[in-house]
Every structure is written in structure tokens, then in C-alpha cells.
Design goal:
6 copies of one chain form a homohexamer.
Chain A lengths: L1 E3 L15 H12 L4 H13 L8 H29 L25 H4 L26 H25 L3 H29 L21 H5 L5 E3 L25 E3 L24 H14 L14 H5 L8
Parallel strand pairs in A: 2-3
């Protein structure tokens, strides 16, 4: 089972200029073979299917716990895509019969507008859906870990290339964070393989052969030590991470550490309605009125109980201009 | 973000006679269009993409929170499949070059053995992978809820049919539980639509038109009131479920209630190694030795820290006989 | 536009012993690359996309008109599959929680029961869905016709093999009819190519190299001359078929003839409910009562206005026994 | 069986400026999950697979008859796409080795030119093929109708968004018509569910929550009452539509009516050859000569017997300029 | 470019009892994610796309040359499947209208009979087609090699499991050979990574953790030293293999050696016609007569010039009995 | 088995201006239904599966031998795509964190950059992967040849259209060559069908109806007689091609001839590193140093043993400017 926390693992900038072509590229990090859907689901299935887990507990805990972090990563990729699509039709307006989507005809992934509500989808940069055949869960611990090390390597490759292709602030903030955190997972699987086989995979770092600290957007996270911390994403379980996650970081030599609990993170940005795509409705104020009435009936306080990032002024400044 | 709890949402029986053909059928509840991967990912993406969530908070909380429960459901489906595959090759033995898989040639989904380690996969009953194109996230709240009501209806259909097709104890325990819990979600989405549109969808229950309480395996859960409880799967968030989840249950008239927190659940069964498929290894005792050494180095207690269900005696009685 | 006639192109036997494994094989004729979905959709799209049709009218009429017949062929394949699946769960009974589908666990295409209501689906014999990528519509008349000749050749191959694999009476009646009618289309496209290129494709018949009249189930249709008749499936259009469809039949030398209108055909069999799969409902009598009330309100006659084949006695004799 | 009428359900404008990027978007209405291929094939298979149809005749007639109208809708979507692609290479010219397709490199769906002859394909806006897995045919009448209501809701969403994205005259004429006619089907399935369950689904209209009459291009059809008419697409069958299709329209309160027969429609536009893509040939005049000779041999009149829209002058004015 | 040699890389036994269910399983080694189509195409594309190859020649030569061997491996997998399917319909007989395929209804992959001529297809054990998305060609040498090492590990896993599942003599001969040769490739990629990164991947062998020499069918090949030989599959190129392929074998410590040229191999078995599936024709003797006439016209010798294995007597003993 | 020759079948120009949108289109010739992957794999599987080959030797030799040439064709398509992608990021530079891929955001197939290293992939122009379901291997010789003739016809269509769409020098050189060589295969299969059936398929040439010699880029190859030569791609096998490949060319009447051996071809171009996509590494000089050391250890000569085309000066002139 999981508990869900309505916060993001890191802060992302509020929406700025829309960038649907960039959002199309970022989809690779969501639904591509090496995207976060793949890391989430590979580790999740491997943890479900782990036989003899009690006798191999540290390895089980490692995989199961990293799976939990990956949920937060698909959340961040989605948030980034959503942010980049915001304003691609007029904010809070653009109701049909206006031709509010004519500017995005032929730009980016058409499903962002025709299927979705200017929102993220489980597809890759080509618009092809993520598929369960991306999951490798052989049940053989050494093979699964070998796969996971390779998967994280491919993921790091893709993040670096998306970084180079998309300079939208949200995409840069995303890739900066994911490079650091994915790097932790890459090290974790290499480390587990080292314990199991004796092969010194640490020597393969960094791969691709660019040190993470060369990426400016990684720096704030590195300075907070996030490149050497493995969070324990559970109220009480997965205590044995420390049996695997210890020793020196293969790139920096600093000590690897387990952090007991999730990152503090940041409240999510509440993105504005896009009535042209009926999100959350053609007339969002109707939804709001009904919601408010239901809240009152249920004795809830006047203000919504959930926390979101402050940001209306930033959104207010958006000119809604599309620069594909 | 999520926190993961290493417990199952409900108790499942320990492995008994293997049933790979049954496991193939149960896969529909995992990776089929209406399987738990679909409910999990539909609600997850809808929650990620929810625009103007602050003003529509009760509906956002509903979708985001049900998404969290669905993770526990893919966990249970996987556990069931894994249990049904256990013993299909000799328990704790069957190492190559023995022909330990010759009995399952032509039985069930060959990927359970050739790709996986007698374990669950994100595929449907045909062996076709789950695909991201099963996700509907239009951003239009009323449409998304209409979809979700339909999705849960299709899911209930599939659970009932799997119930009729597979009488393995694990499958029956699974479908009994999922029918009750999926029924809650079906009602929840109908209820949300009622609030938003005024259409009295409660009149459509039960659909398919068989009352849940006719299924014997649902009875224990109904008697505990699980058919009218919506769990809040979060330490602190999604407080506004009560604004939507209230009033009478459409079938029984009993009051709908929000439970503050997840179900107590049950510890997972630690399934035995299947060396014929190298799960967790061709020689599992090697893994165990390394794990034990690492645990000691890390100062962990002698016994594994994680809790699993008692069950060795039950497993010990397994004859490993395959009755497809 | 089309008008629909609620009759089958030929008579099919009433349900007899169920044969789900056979139904799985017959699906190749529905949703396989060379199945009737493919012939229907290839010719339909080619007719939609035909440029300069007015100056090439006889060829346009030929393709557009054969497309119309193919609709009747997917109807017949579906009817055959439905017939073969009838009785695989108890007729008019088998309501959950009975294990009414346990006999078909591991037999045939699981989607026939789990996704469908013991009914046909647009899938092939592997359970893979028909895909739009099976459509070839290049716009080049000679190429499209070359494709169509090849498509009909592959279709004839598949029909013959399904004939050899499945000896269920419904499957034999189906393949006997389709071999004759598909043979007409194969000749028609060869003939069109002959007119356009001068290549004497008639010399390639029969291909595969078994004369149609060797198949006993083809004989009744051959004796009625169906192997040399092209029906005109339109109240008033496609008058120019005769410009292409004339001359001697390549196998028999008999004259090719256009029949002005569709075949008389036969009324469809009204298949009995299968409550185990909720078709048409868990409690079909409820549907019947509502329908009857609506009919009365609308001033319709006491008896249903639609014609179906007589067959209750035959159905009554069905033991519902499954012989996979 | 079907009869085919060589007319379009409504009039579409003759080709004007080519718009391949718009044509790519319109493909969503053809081969997308909610496109017309999906409505056609869902209702067709549901009608094929309807068990106990005689006792539920009004519902069977409803589904079977709407299926028939949907054929006319894929025809109109194809015609629109074909029109929008016309002129994207030089009309009646552009023979290789000219670089006649260089202007469309990187514009729209490359298959419109490389695979097709500037013609429609069974693909969606991403260029992904329509798949049989889009068909839901559970056999359970209430579930199938629930699906169909949802399907039409998603289809209406997609039509509105394509309207907003593509302002080409052909696309606007298409979406204006389909919104009205699809709206009828959406009401029809809601109405059927109301009769069967008592749930007042009419309250959910319009969904998406924009009244159809806000769309200018819908107005001519609304003024002719097309939003409340269900055509009976059969010479003699499906007489029991009136048992379901009656009462007030959920949006306007006007009475719902059955029209006995198809709409008069309009003759199709005969689109000009595009020799750059060999449609209908590299040298279309060769095809025309052969056709004329065959027509004479067959004793057909001098002029083609099929009717097409007048339009050469309009086509003559086309500058063939591409404005992507 | 390639030159083709009409010999198999190793000897396979002549057809014995047919085993279509086994053939279905062996397809995983052809068209599965880790099948020989994948190894062939991954290395082929990596060699095509190798940038700066002149300066990295030994690595380029390694990948390009192993690609060449993989062609011989898909050939052997196909030969095995074909052999296992031989006799599943009557040898040299079974012409329609006989029900010659009724024994294989519901057995194995239906496409082996309905689509193919009792022959291999580029599909996996589920009947799902091989896809180009299985190819990883990042252009980054270290990543490509990491992938290749993982790919060969997964391939070894699959071969071992097919070995355990299918005890047909042809399947055993195949897997025995492929385990040895694939093992060479697994070592080769590990070795290349060792040179490039310094990580001692040799410590990971064997993976899966069963020594190859435990498999009896590997013994003949090991005794010939095939586990430590890398063949150079080129008349004159790929001379620099020796720069990477040297040093001790990670399991046995024996020296790795380059063999200049391909293995001698064995002539292919000429499998008998299966007229039930029209292979090579419904009436194979017609083909033979035409071929003989053409050979004479061309001045070719009386006997075919190509060499095939002696085997008629073995084939003559086949009872054609099917033991699924 | 195959031997590989490290030469291209024909000369291609060195990289000039990058053209990623053109490269996207050229992918149709690689991974499309009618691309070279399809011709390669269709003929390869047909040759593997050929039953009774000894008695039908000339036809077996024909198919097996053409398969061998097709390998050289996928090599040329890949080389063309690679050439067209060269320079799309800065040559020999562009290391992250530079935004070196921002110019190709939204241009062409994103997988060329995000998944690949500016290199070819087994995908079509839509970015959809090649699939094994494109392979037709029925085992029936006449049907397989009919398919092959149709496949080559579709391939010729696609080559001509890519020619018209992409005027990049590499694409023109490629299509010029492939049109001539694919034309040979189209004739070969027609010829084989003529021998087997007596149908004079030669009358269908050219199809599409544009003579190959109208394409200027075909002229050099026609002048060398390549349109009438069938190369024998084997050191010693496939001697019986001459029994089928003889007589007059259907378009020119010139005699068809078998060439004993492969074309001389040309050395491949060694494309420069693209460090932005880590091809062959983020720091290619590291790879070069290691390679050089290994070469020395192995006693290889100072200079690489493999031959590549001269071309540094040409590459040096590249401004790296992107003109999409």
C-alpha cells in the first residue's frame, strides 16, 4: 500500500511562456522506454515479485523503496509538462467557438490538446504510448539489478539530451533535479551489484561520461547533498537500505547516507484553467460553486484545506503568448 | 510523493496448488484495459493534470486519493498471480539442466516463465502489454468522472468474470476483495457526477446487475463495512473527501463514511524461491549469505526487520503438483 | 452513406456444440491481416480516397461496391464466432457466483469471455487487435488493385487453412461461402488489372492452387452460380461494374455476370442469452420486460418487428456441453 | 448486409487552400480512440454480438441503426481530409523527378504523402493506427450503452477541439455537422440508459458543457432540426427505434423524432488527380482512356453514370499554394 | 554488404516428433525482446551508426562482426522451429478438404499454421511481433556496450528457460549451441567494457549463475573450444577483434582466441513439403517440374547445385504423429 | 550464415547541410511497411522456411540471394540518415550543458536525438517501429512471390515519393540507387511468377508508371547496367539464379544477367563525433586513446586496418548550420 503526500519532491518554477514543442520532448522522460513510468513500474513489479525477500531483505528494501521515489518523479515530469503547456491557449478564456487552438496546429504532440486538457500523458516524445513490455522483472536479483543499472544509465542519457534540447525554465529545473536523483538510483543499483558479484561497477561512473556537477541546475541539489542521500519513503518499512547504501560516492568519494523519510519538497502549483480545452470545464466557475457548496455542507472550512504554491501574480503576468 | 507501507490491503491465502492457466486469466485484472494498472494510472494522471484544483478541491482530493488505493490493488493482483504460479516448477529446486518447466509448456502465459520468474507482469489475459493509451485524462472534470464511472463498471465486469473462470483460492480472495473496494470507487465517481450534474446515477447500481453481496467471498468485507468506507490514504492530505463521499449507499442505503487512514491490512506472504526460473537466483542461498553479511556490517539486528506472513508450514505441505 | 439490411448474406447453421478453440482460430478471418476487417476497410478507404473517380468510374464502382459486400462478410464471421461460443457457459443460466467459466479457463481467446460476452472481437487468432496499418490506400489505382489481388490471395489462403483446422459446422458453412465470394473478388481485381495493364493474371488462378470446387461446402454456392456473380450492393449506384466484370471465369470459363442487388440472404439467428457473461444482462428477463413496455408505449405491434431465423428447438436440444 | 449510396450525408465545400497540418489534426476524428472508426466499429460489433435481440428489439435496432449512420461519418471525415490535402502538391501535375513534395517535408502526417495518395488513413492525429482494442462489446446491454454514452462524450470533446484548432472551411463544415449528429447519438444512448435504469442522464447535457448551438457551423443543421432527428438507415428494418427515441430533447425540450430513411445528402466532390503521388496514376489520362473504352464495350452511356458535385471552376481557382 | 553462405552454424537433428507447443516457446528466442532478432538488429544498427569508427576501430569491429554471427543465429532458431512443426500436418499429404490441421487447433501459436507454412515467424512466445523498439542504438559506445551486456544476459536467461521447458531434440541442440555462442558475446561485451571503464565485469560471470558446462548439450561445443573463440565473419574485414578479444575466459581462465573465418557448420536440412499448408504448394510436384525445366534451359546440371543434409530415411520414419 | 564486407553497395556523398526533417522522411525507407527492413526480413524468413527447397532450387536461390542484397540496402538507408543528421548539433563539440539540441526541438523525429546518437533507427517516417507483422512468409511459393512483387511495388512507390520530398544530396543518391536495385528485385519476382504461372507480369512494368530512367540520379547506375544485373551475394552458393533471371528486361528489352559476386561498392564514410549526443562519447578522444593502446597491445599496425572514404576536408567545410 501507499500513502500519498500532496507535495512535490522539489520546487518547480511557475508557468512562464508556453512551449508545446518542448513539452513534446519532455514526454520522453515520462513515457519513453527510459522514462519515469519505466523506472516506477520496473522497480514496483520487481518488488512485488521478489521471492525469498526475507532472506534478501536489504536488496528487497532497496528496490521497493526506490520504486516509491519514482512515483514522485512521474509527478514532477507531469507538472513540468503541464506548466509548459499552460498558456498555449488563452488563460481562463478561449472558449469555443473561438479558434483558440489554431496556434498549436502542427506544433508538438497533438494529443496534448486533442486528447488531454493541455496536460501530460503516458506517451514518449514520438507520441507513442508507454507499454508494459518496458518492464523487466525476471525475478533473478542479479539480472534485475543489471537491468536497473542499465535503465538508469539510459535515463540519465535521456535527461541530459532533453536538457540540451529544451531550455524552458521548468524543463531545466526538472532535469537538474532528476539528474541528481536518478544518479543516486544509478549508484544504488551499481552498489548492490558490487555487493552481490564483486565487480567494481563504481568505475563506470559517470555514464554518460559527463559529471553531474557540470550541469548548473544540478548545483543547488548537489550543495544540499542530494546526490549522496537515499530517502526512505516509508513511515516504518524498508529499514535495511543502509546495508546496501553505504560507502563512498563513486564520483565524489563523499559518504553515502540514508535519510529517514521523504524530502520536505514543495507545495504543487495550482495551474490555471484552460477553458479552450475544457479544463477543468468549459465554465470552471460552475465547478467552483458546486465545490464550495459541497464543502460547506460537509462542514469544511471556508478556505480549501490543501496547500498550493503562491503564484497568482506570476500567472497574472503571463501574456499567454505562444513561442513554439 | 508517496510513502510506501510494506503491507497488503487485505489478507490472501498462502500458495496452494499452482494454477498457471488461472494466473493467465487473472492478468486481465492487472494489465487489461479495465485492470488495476488502468485505474491506478488514470486517476494518477488525472490528479497530476487537475487544473484549478484549489477551487475544486473535494473532487481533486477524491481522484488523487482513490489513485493511492489503486496502487495497493496492483500489489494484490500481483501477489495473487505470484501465489498461483508458485510451485509450477519445483519449490526450492528444479535447477537446470532439469526439464523443470516442461509441465507448463503450452499452459498459460509463457512469459510468466520465460520472461518473468513465475511472477506477475503488466500484461492482460492475452499476454498483450498494458499501454498508456488506456489512460483518459481530458482535464474536463465531468468527462473524466464519466470515464472513471465507466472504467469501474468495466472493471467490475472483469472481476466477476474472472471470479467465474478461476476458482483458485487466491483468485477468489482477490476478486472478493476487489469487488467490494472497486464498488466503492464506482459509487464514488457516480456520486461526484451526481453532485456536478444532478443526474441520479445511483439508480444504475448494481452494474453489472448482480448485487455484490451475492458473492460469498465479498461477505467478510461487507460485514466489516468496507463497501461503504472510503479510506483516506495520506498522512495529512485529501481532507475534503467527505464533501463528496457522504449520503446513502446506492444499493444498501447505509451511510457512506470516510476512514481516516489506510486499512490495517496484512503482512505480505514471502513466496519461496523457484530456482528453475532463477528467482531470486539459481542458488538463492548465495544471495542470503551475502545479505546476511551486509546486514551485520550495517549493524542491523540478526532477524530481518520486515514483517511477512507466517506460512512456512503451509508452503511445506505443497506437493508442487501442477494441475492446469 | 449506407443502408443496412438486417439479414445475413447466407444461411448459417444454428448453434451446436460450443467450440471456443475453434472460435479463436476463426478470429483470423475477422481481425487478421487478411481478415474481413482488412478487406472491408481497404476497399472502403480506397473508395473514399479515389481521385479523378469520374473519369475512372468503372474501377471506382468496382472497389466501392466490393467494399459494401465485405461488411456482410464481417457480419458472417461474427455470427460464426458467436455461434461457436454459444453454450460455452450454460445457456440461459450460469449466473455468478457459479464457476460457469471454469471450463473455458485456458481454452481459446480469453477475451471472448473476459472482455466480450461470448462474442466476436476485432482481433486475430493470436488475440492481437486489427490495426489501421493493415490498410493500403496509395491512391495509385494499379498499385491498389495489385494490393487487393494479393490481399484476396492471402485471404483465400487463410480461409482454406481455417477450413482444415476447424470442422465445426458453422465454421465450415462460413468458409465454404467466403471461399466462393472471396474468389469472386480475387477474380475481380485480377480482371481490373488485366484491363489496365494487359497482364493476363487469370493464369494465376486458382491461388492457392486448389480449385474451389474441391471444397464440398462450396458446392451449393457454386451450383447457384455465386462464383461468377458480382452483386451490386446499392439501390441506384455503382452501375458501371459491368465494364470490368465481364468475360470468362478464369477457372471455369463460364461468363461473369453482375447481379443487380444484394443476395436474398437469410434472417439472422437470435442467439440465446448467456447470463454468466451478462449477455444481454445478468437477468435478461428484466431487459425483455422494459423493452416490451417501451414497445407498447410506442404503439408497436405485440410481436417484434424484426425477423430472425426459426431455431428455438435446435437451441433447446443443446446440452451446453463444452468439447474444446 | 449493407447497401451503399454514393452520396455524402451533408455537403462539404470544394477544395480550397491545402492544409496538411490541419489534415493531421482532423485524423483524430477518423482513427483516434474517439474517432468515427471507433463509433462505427463499436456499434457494429455490439449489434453483431447482441444476444436475445428479439426480446430487446428496440435497443438492438437503436445500436444497429446508429452503426449504419457512422459509416457515413467516416466517409465525411475522409472527404474532409482529402479535400484539405488537395493542392499540397501541384494539381494535375508535379510528376517526378520534380521535387513536388518538398514543401510538405516535416509538415503534418508524412504518411498522407508517403503511404497514401494525399488521402485519409485509419490513423489518429499522432499517426498511430486505429486498433481493434478500441472496441468495447461486452454483450451487457447496460454496460455497452454506458460505454457508448461515454464514447460519444469523448467524441464530442474531440470534435470541439478540432474545431478550435483547424479553421479550414472543410474542417469547420465537418465538425459543425458531426457535432449535431454525434449529439443525437449521445442523447440516444443516454435515453436508452434512462429507460433501462431510471437514471436521468439527460441532466448531464451538454457535455462538454458548451451548448451545440453556440457553434455557428452547427446552426444550419439545427435549423433543419437535425439535432432531434434519428434517421432510419434501412430500406425496411430497425422499425423499433421509436420505442427508445422519443420524448423531449435534453437541451432544447423539443420532441425527438425518427426520420424514415437516410438524409438526402449531397453528391461527393470528385477530387482532382495528384500525379506527384500517383493518384490515381502517374499519368491519369491513361486510366481515363482505358475506362472510357471499357465503358463503351459494356454499352454504358457516354457520360459517367455516377453523380458528383459541380466544382471544376472552384478547383480551377486553386493556386495550389501551400500554407502550412 | 554481406555474402551469404548456405550452411548452418551447427548441425541440428532431423525432424522427429512434431511439437508445436514447444515451437511456440522457442519463438521467444527468435522474436522476443532478448531473442536473436534483437541481438542481430541491435548490433547491426550500432555498427551502422558508429561515429568516429576509425579511431575506435577495435570496438567497431567487435560489434559489427558479432552482428554478422547473429544472422546465423536467427537462421538456427528458424530451422529449429521449422523442424518442430514438421509433421504437425501429414507429411507430403493432407491436402484440403481434409481436416489436416484439426489436431493443432488450440495448440501453440496459431500463426504457425494460419499465417505461416508451418514455419518460423518474427514473433515471441506470446505471438507478439518483434518490434524495432527493441533496438538500442544510443551512439554512446559505453552505453551501447552496457546494453549489449545486459541484452546477452537476458538472452542467456531465456535460452536456459527454453531449455528447461522444451525437451524436443532440436530445441535442446539449439539451446546447447546458443548458450555457448551467446556466452561468447556476453563475455565480449563485458571485456570491451572492462577495457573502456576499468570495471571488472568478468566477476559477474556466469549470469544467470549456472555454469554453461552444467548443460550436457553444451559439452560438445565446449570441448571444441567454442566458448572461447570469436569467429571473424568476413573475408577481409574486422581485423581488430584481437585488440579486445584476448585474455582469460572469466569462467574457465582459458585464453580467448579469434578464429579467422566462420565455423565450418553443416548443410541445412531440406524439410519436406506440407501440402496442408501449401508449403511449398498445394501440389509441390508442379513446382518441382517447372524448376527442373528451368534448370535444364539454363544449362544447370541434373542434380541441384546446393548441398543439403542427408536425411530422407529419417524423415521416412516419421509417423507424422502429433504429441502436443 | 553470412560474411560481412565493410563496404557500401554504392557511393554516397559526404555529409553536407544537416536535414533532420528529411531524415525523418527517409526513415520510411528503413522501417516502413515497404522499407528495406521489410524486404530484408521477408526474404530472409521465406528462405529460412522454404520447404522442399532442393526440388525448387532456382526459386530458393533467388529469394535467399535477394535477401542478402537487402542487408546492404538497410546499410545504405542508415548511412543516408546518419549523414543527414550529421551537423544537426555542432560537429565535434556541443557538450552539455550547452543547449546544443535546441535548434532541433520540434524538428523531425525526436528519437534521432533523444534515443539515438543522431543515427538511424528501425522506425518509419511517423516514428513508429518496424514490426515483425510486416513479414509475410506463407510457405506457398506462388503466394510469397506475389507478396514480394507487391512489396517491391510499394517500395518503389515509397522511394519515388521520398525522392520528391527530400532533395538532400544523400537522399537523392540513395533513392537513385535503390530505385534501380529495387527495380531489379521487382522484375525478379515478376519473372519467377511468370515461370510458375504463365501470367505475363512483365506487362505491368513500370509500376508506378514512371520509367526509372526519368530519374536523373538513376542514370549513372542504368548506364552501368545495374538495372539488368542480379548480383550473386555468396562465395559459392545460389548458383541457380540464372535459371530464373534470364530473358529480356520488361522495360528496356535488354538481356537480364547474373553477376557472380557482389558489387565492388565503396568504402563507408566515417562520420564525425557528435559529443552533444555522446556519440561515440561525451569525450571521444578518451575512446580513441584507449583504442589506440589496445591496438598496440595486440600488435596491430599503427593505422587502423579498416578502410573508410576520404572526406575530412569535406567535413571540415561543414558550417554545422541547420536548415530544417
Amino acid at each position: 500500500m501507499i500513502l500519498r503526500i500532496d507535495r512535490w519532491g522539489t520546487e518547480l518554477p511557475p508557468p512562464s511562456d508556453p512551449d508545446p514543442a518542448g513539452a513534446q520532448a519532455v514526454q520522453e522522460l515520462m513515457g519513453g522506454r527510459f522514462g519515469e513510468m519505466s523506472t516506477l513500474m520496473n522497480y514496483t513489479f520487481q518488488s512485488f515479485n521478489f521471492r525469498g525477500r526475507q532472506k534478501a531483505r536489504p536488496f528487497y528494501d532497496l528496490i521497493a523503496n526506490i520504486a516509491a521515489e519514482e512515483f514522485g518523479h512521474i509527478e514532477l515530469v507531469a507538472a513540468t509538462i503541464n506548466s509548459m503547456l499552460t498558456g498555449a491557449s488563452p488563460i481562463d478564456d478561449g472558449r469555443a467557438p473561438k479558434a483558440s487552438l489554431s496556434d498549436v496546429k502542427g506544433i508538438g504532440n497533438p494529443h496534448h490538446f486533442l486528447a488531454g486538457g493541455q496536460g501530460a500523458l503516458p506517451q514518449d516524445s514520438r507520441g507513442n504510448p508507454w507499454t508494459g513490455d518496458y518492464v523487466f522483472s525476471s525475478g533473478d536479483l542479479v539480472e534485475d539489478l543489471t537491468h536497473n543499472f542499465f535503465l538508469e544509465t539510459g535515463a540519465r542519457n535521456n535527461k541530459l539530451k532533453v536538457y540540451e534540447m529544451v531550455d524552458h525554465p521548468a524543463a531545466r529545473a526538472l532535469t537538474g533535479y532528476l539528474l541528481v536523483r536518478g544518479g543516486v538510483h544509478q549508484v544504488a543499483y551499481a552498489r548492490a551489484l558490487e555487493w552481490l558479484t564483486g565487480a567494481n561497477l563504481s568505475k563506470m561512473f559517470p555514464t554518460p561520461r559527463i559529471p553531474t556537477d557540470k550541469i548548473p541546475e544540478c548545483q543547488p541539489h548537489i550543495q544540499q547533498g542530494l546526490h549522496r542521500k537515499l530517502y526512505r519513503f516509508s513511515p516504518s518499512d524498508y529499514q535495511e537500505l543502509i546495508a546496501v547504501w553505504n560507502g563512498p560516492h563513486p564520483e565524489t568519494g563523499e559518504p553515502l547516507e540514508v535519510e529517514q523519510g521523504p524530502p520536505e519538497g514543495a507545495p504543487p502549483v495550482d495551474l490555471p484553467p484552460q477553458p479552450a480545452v475544457f479544463a477543468p470545464d468549459y465554465a470552471p466557475e460552475e465547478i467552483a460553486q458546486i465545490a464550495q457548496r459541497l464543502r460547506q455542507q460537509a462542514g469544511l472550512p471556508e478556505e480549501p484545506t490543501g496547500e498550493v504554491a503562491e503564484g497568482p501574480s506570476a500567472l497574472g503576468r503571463m501574456a499567454g503568448k505562444l513561442t513554439p
